[in-house]
Write a sequence for this structure.
């Protein structure tokens, strides 16, 4: 394992146009001609082309990193544009990897872009990562973070790590020979659902710009072999107070991946490791789609019931700020408060529960059913489906 990019026997040359392009690097003694040649020779894999991946890949391409690999399988959504600056309005609906590659090539045609349009999994991670010198982790979920970490340790590739949530971010360099890995910091993932995703908890649009640029800086320092990388240090960013703190990290000798006697010697099932249970299959029970014993109803079916003046109690289990953004009526009890506020509901009433997409409302239905409520139905697809299929005037967020 290495803490910096290992210089090849023969570095690539720079032509006159490259010398002009990178002139502000070349006059830095810490970079110079040799450093820029190292950047040109380097191969960096960026996992994700979203909030972190956008500024990260932009600056690596601008700096002249010779080969940039992109891993992504998602498409551009309008809600991405508040922070994922590599994509634009015209890209909505396009694969993110195509949009990102197009922008990076337009910025610097000297850079080779390698597209891996796939989900990174235990089956393909080692094969993809082996061709790169450094990995930059721009993922937004715990299973993939642990997967990237373990794959980097097993292949000996430094991991330039970043994460963001709401107004706060973290950055470090993991999986080097002398430094800790992600598992040394977080031996166990948090319980499923404890940490909301950005889609549920929100994120300040500019925050991934701050953290992604820090990741890009660490990648370039590793390639050049200059400065003091964030090895053995965790940088904490608080954008509200604009405060940066650094915590010291130590390599855990008992770490199951990078410790003295590792027990994880191959990639595992990271969904299972993070306690994520596969979503139950929807079955047909009494001619009604049912998931985990909870009947499902479509937005159009609910609209028909409401239009027919049927006695249906609509329960909204989103947060109050979400209700302010978009609602179609209903009684608001956030999921986290439902256990203490069940007395606001009638146990024999027909209750249709909804949230943004249908996940939280499914949990609410299961909780209510376990507490004796007889006629509980989940709105499949949530208020998003209502906006898509019933009333487009209801905003999507």
């Amino acid at each position: 394992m290495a803490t910096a990019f290992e210089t090849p026997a023969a570095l690539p040359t720079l032509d006159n146009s490259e010398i002009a392009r990178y002139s502000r690097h070349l006059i830095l003694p810490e970079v110079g001609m040799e450093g820029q040649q190292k950047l040109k020779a380097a191969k960096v894999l960026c996992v994700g082309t979203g909030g972190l991946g956008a500024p990260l890949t932009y600056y690596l391409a601008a700096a002249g990193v010779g080969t940039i690999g992109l891993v992504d399988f998602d498409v551009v959504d309008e809600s991405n544009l508040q922070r994922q600056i590599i994509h634009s309005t015209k890209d909505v609906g396009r694969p993110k990897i195509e949009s990102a590659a197009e922008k990076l090539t337009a910025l610097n045609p000297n850079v080779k872009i390698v597209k891996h349009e796939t989900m990174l999994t235990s089956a393909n991670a080692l094969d993809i990562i082996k061709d790169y010198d450094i990995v930059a982790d721009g993922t937004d979920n715990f299973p993939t973070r642990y997967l990237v970490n373990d794959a980097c340790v097993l292949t000996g590739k430094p991991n330039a790590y970043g994460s963001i949530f709401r107004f706060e971010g973290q950055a470090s360099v993991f999986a080097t020979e002398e430094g800790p890995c992600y598992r040394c910091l977080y031996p166990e993932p948090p319980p499923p659902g404890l940490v909301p995703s950005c889609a549920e908890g929100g994120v300040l649009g500019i925050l991934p710009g701050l953290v992604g640029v820090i990741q890009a800086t660490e990648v370039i320092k590793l390639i050049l072999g200059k400065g003091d990388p964030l090895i053995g240090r965790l940088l904490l960013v608080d954008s509200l107070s604009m405060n940066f703190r650094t915590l010291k990290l130590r390599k855990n000798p008992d770490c199951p991946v990078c410790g003295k006697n590792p027990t994880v010697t191959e990639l595992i099932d990271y969904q299972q490791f993070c306690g994520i249970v596969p979503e139950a299959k929807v079955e047909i029970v009494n001619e009604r789609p049912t998931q985990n014993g909870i009947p499902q109803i479509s937005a159009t079916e609910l609209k028909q019931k409401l239009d027919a003046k049927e006695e249906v109690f609509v329960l909204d289990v989103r947060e109050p700020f979400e209700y302010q953004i978009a609602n179609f009526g209903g009684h608001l009890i956030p999921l986290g408060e439902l256990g203490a506020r069940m007395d606001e509901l009638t146990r024999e009433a027909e209750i249709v529960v909804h949230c943004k997409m249908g996940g939280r409302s499914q949990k609410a239905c299961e909780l209510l059913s376990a507490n004796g409520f007889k006629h509980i139905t989940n709105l499949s697809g949530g208020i998003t489906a209502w906006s898509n299929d019933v009333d487009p005037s209801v905003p999507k967020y």
